[in-house]
Amino acid sequence: MADGHESDKNIEIWKIKKLIKALESARGNGTSMISLIMPPRDQISRVTKMLGDEFGTASNIKSRVNRQSVLAAITSAQQRLKLYNKVPPNGLVLYTGTVVTEDGKEKKVTIDFEPFKPINASLYLCDNKFHTEALNELLESDDKFGFIVMDGNGTLFGTLSGSADFKTELSQSDMFDPRLQAKILNVVDVSYGGENGFNQAIELSAEILSNVKFIQEKRLIGKYFEEISQDTGKYVFGVDDTLKALEMGAVETLIVWENLDINRYVLKNSVTGEMIIKHLNKEQEADQSNFRDAANSAELEVQEKMPLLEWFANEYKRFGCTLEFVTNKSQEGSQFCRGFGGIGGILRYQLDIRSFDELSDDGEIYEDSD
């Protein structure tokens, strides 16, 4: 299970993946979509001047419609840059322009943000699509791996990527530290000692290193399944029960499938004015009865609609838990998605949601049974 920093990083990666998917699907008429990336230590003044020059060039575009769209996009970029006194420490990413929606209407879009880690790219393109290639750099892993190669003549410590902290921690210990034992991903036999053995160890570990995320995922979901198999009461699954446990502050680790296709609706009863929250999948969204009050047939008006995944990413810290996104590509991940709906949690303490519902109806307070 990841620590708080690792969990935050994974959520930022998920947000970038979601953004890339949305940007790549967007299309415009003509060349009215601007992709602008500024690396750390770049100058706002340089890009502002460049945009001014581009504005002058675009003024000569023969097509009136395309000319107006391009000029509007450049103006939007210029206005957005005025919000920054300098380029943020990790760089600046800006996408702006007019896109065509699914129903054929034009919509102005502007997205600007500082990446969660430095972006080593400089880009300005005006096209009929947004260019996201440089954003994929942000998805590359920063994980560091240590290698130990032992033969009859001694031991070689090395790291693949990053600093030598791993080596230092191990070399200062008289015995193999049990805390490091849990970090072992693989043990391989090498034909050589020294540097040749080090290189061979890297080659033999290539497959397992590429699957580190899946190993972490298997361990996390394995722990979740263990709570279920032992019937500890320290687990929850399904949208409704998981949200109840979250509201109680009982969830330690919230586990969600990264492609969970459920939307969170805030609905208003058109007769009583009561606000209602519902979580609906695609099939439920198509059922109009979910948008009417069963008691008085009043229409439930949509006040807010948001992917539940996005709501979790924005709100999870409020519940004092960590948030872990998982795939369905490992055996454990697939079982979690198919058997448990792709949403669940490991709890801090034993909890019976159904008993809590009964007690809360009587106005009683549920106490920790541990």
Describe the protein.
With 370 residues, this protein is α+β, with helices and mostly antiparallel strands. It has three domains: 24-139, 2-Layer Sandwich (Translation, Eukaryotic Peptide Chain Release Factor Subunit 1, Chain A); 145-210, no CATH class; 217-361, 60s Ribosomal Protein L30, Chain: A (2-Layer Sandwich). The chain contains 13 helices and 13 strands. The protein has helices spanning 4-25, 44-58, 64-81, 165-171, 178-181, 194-204, 206-210, 212-229, 239-247, 282-285, 308-315, 331-340, 353-361, and strands at residues 33-38, 92-100, 106-113, 123-127, 145-151, 154-160, 235-237, 251-257, 262-269, 275-281, 300-307, 322-326, 343-347. The protein is flat. The two termini are 23 Å apart. Mean pLDDT is 81; it is low at 159-173 and 358-370.
Note the main attributes of this structure:
alpha+beta, 38% helix, 60s Ribosomal Protein L30, Chain: A, 4-stranded antiparallel sheet, 13 helices, Translation, Eukaryotic Peptide Chain Release Factor Subunit 1, Chain A, 3 domains, 4-stranded mixed sheet, eRF1/Pelota-like N-terminal domain-containing protein, disordered C terminus, 370 residues
